[in-house]
Amino acid sequence: MLPLSSAAVRLVTPIETERLRLRPFHDDGRDVDALLAVLGDERSMRFYPAPFDRDGVGGWIGRQLERYERDGFGLLAIEDRATGEVIGDCGPTVQEADGESFVELGWHVLRARQGQGVATEAGAACRDAAFASLDSWFLISLIRPENRPSRRVAEKLGFEVWRGTIRAGWGHLIYRLDRPA
User: Fold this and answer.
1) Rounded distance between C-alpha atoms, residue 53 and residue 36, angstroms
2) Full-prediction pTM beyond 0.90?
């Protein structure tokens, strides 16, 4: 069961922080090359089955565009407000785990910008926007146990390990954050 109390939900965008602007991906392909630098990076994507090629990134963005229409939300492009450069993605998506659908908060950041608090800043803004807009009872984050950087981000955002699951044949931890009272 999807932890939403209302089917008619929409995440309000863009979302701005001190350093970042989170906005929907463009549907004209102009975000593909910038996101390829993130999702195509072998080191950054070591916790996925493989890095994405250009077509894979185009499909990734296409799935977000479909999510915007179907669910009212999806991963957003992370832009550096000072430069306008796309440096990753972050946001809520509907994900399945153990036969149930959940709202997951996920993030990916350009390797050159990792360790600078970008994922935490974007994640906090998307977490707050999700709770403000989506009326979700809780959020999850699916993270491979060996992905210590993402685990640290989740923990900084207030998530705690809830349980484990298998996705794509790999063990994952399901982090959970309940809606603040």
Assistant:
1) 7
2) yes
